[in-house]
Amino acid sequence: MTVYFIGAGPGAADLITVRGARLLAASPVCLYAGSLVPVELLAECPPDARLIDTANLDIEQITAELVRAHADGHDVARLHSGDPSVFSAVNEQMKRLDEAGIPYEVVPGVPAFAAAAAALKRELTVPTVGQTVILTRIAQRATAMPEGEDLATLGRSGALIVLHLAARYVDRVVEELTPHYGADCPAAVVAMASRPDEIILRGPLDSIAEQVKAAGVIRTAVIMVGRTLGAEQFRDSHLYAVGRDRGGF
């Protein structure tokens, strides 16, 4: 058997990959975070599949379910919201599976920041304006940030910053980024990206906190700050440039 860590995407059930959907439909056991994974996806599971909501389980209980499925010879679809590579808590699960000698694979999914960019109809990298995207979060009581990865330090780069898990702390975000980006820097918040109840907020950095609070956004949101969000005057990319020599490599 194999445990498949599957990126379920940002919310819309049809944003799971074809590979992820195929594996989900073939796995007799499915573990999913009920608060984050769209329930519509569970309809893709086999009719007699064992469905386990991990929202209230700790890491040892989750591991026990994976070990049990392995003992029974059942493949497992382990659904994670977005993409497993970012803020997914997959590392500790893979570590335990390694220790138990249980095989697993990782199936990528559409990350929340990509769905947010799609909702904003924005390319996050713009020629001559910005070519760097920083994915990060802010320090909370549960998990501190490593030294040098605080917003004040990251903000010195001037690169587009994408913050996950930070909507509750939007005042801190604005306070720490304003000295580096300026009060007029374009900012956006996308909550529940790709879902029917999607919320899109835009404006200068100094207005975004009030918009977030007025909209009642406290979770399942991505905050973006950077000049590429408002770029209108920029050079075309070299890829499709009219004068580019396409005879070589």
TrEMBL record:
Protein name listed in UniProt: Precorrin-4 C(11)-methyltransferase
Superkingdom of the source species: Bacteria
Keywords: Cobalamin biosynthesis, Methyltransferase, S-adenosyl-L-methionine, Transferase
Keyword Methyltransferase tagged: yes
Family: Belongs to the precorrin methyltransferase family.
Pathway: Cofactor biosynthesis; adenosylcobalamin biosynthesis
GO biological process, one term: methylation
EC number, UniProt record: 2.1.1.133
Gene that produces this protein: cobM
Tetrapyrrole methylase domain sequence ranges: 2-208
Taxonomic source organism: Streptomyces cyaneofuscatus
Database matches in Pfam families: TP_methylase
SUPFAM superfamilies (UniProt xref): Tetrapyrrole methylase
UniProt keyword annotation of Methyltransferase present: yes
GO MF term list: precorrin-4 C11-methyltransferase activity
